[in-house]
Amino acid sequence: MNRKLFLKYFLLFIVSMLFCFSIKQVVAMEENQANIKEKVPIYYTPEDVLIALLSPKLHEIVKEHYGKKTTVEVYNIVDISLIHSTTTTLGGWFEIELMLRVGELENTTYDIVTLKITAPNTRPENRKTIREVNDIKVDLVEYKKIKRKND
Q1: What's the pLDDT tens digit per position in 34-45?
Q2: Which of 10, 106, 115, 126 is the most exposed place for a label (fewest CB within 10 A)?
Q3: Model's pTM, two decimal places?
Q4: For residue 4, which phi and psi values (nearest 5 degrees)?
Q5: Residue 94 contacts residue 80 (beta carbons within 8 Å)
């Protein structure tokens, strides 16, 4: 009889320990999962990524041109060119021509902006050695007003 009682209590002890430890692990897993950022599938094109990277500079350029902060939307990427420089060892630069929609709906203006993006890794031999992107510069080459929406 003592042996049956002992086995009963021992089994009850083991089950309760398993139950306690499993609850702690579930709570710990839930806490850890709260800290994990979920990777959400999105549908961006390379153009969307490029526009997102250039957006702060575009807002700054348009603000300087119009003298006030206004709405800026990239309407179209007109052209992208890689220009190699034979005079420097760093390579060349990218020229990007963008059509912008500037202003609110009732006063929309379409402008064309040409940007020069100087990057030290435009030459294939430099891509292997350059690890930082700190030296990338975006400069305004040309700003043209095309037309207003109501014109």
Answers
A1: 566 677 777 788
A2: 106
A3: 0.63
A4: -65, -40
A5: yes
Q: How many CA atoms lie within 13 A of 29 on its CB side?
A: 6
Q: How many domains does one find in the chain? A: 2
Helix (H, G, I), strand (E, B) or coil at 141: strand
One domain for residues 27 and 66: no
Burial of 115 per CB tally in 10 Å (0-12, 13-18, 19+): buried
2: containing domain: 1-41
Q: Which of 85, 147, 146, 89 is nearest to 116 (CA)?
A: 85
Residue 24 and residue 4 share a domain: yes
State whether 90 and 21 are in the same domain.
no
Q: How far apart are CA 76 and CA 147, in angstroms?
A: 15
SS3 59: helix
Q: Which two tokens stand for residue 80?
A: 């992208």
Domain co-membership, 58 together with 20: no
What is the average pLDDT score of the chain? Answer: 77
Q: How many CB atoms lie within 10 A of CB 26?
A: 10
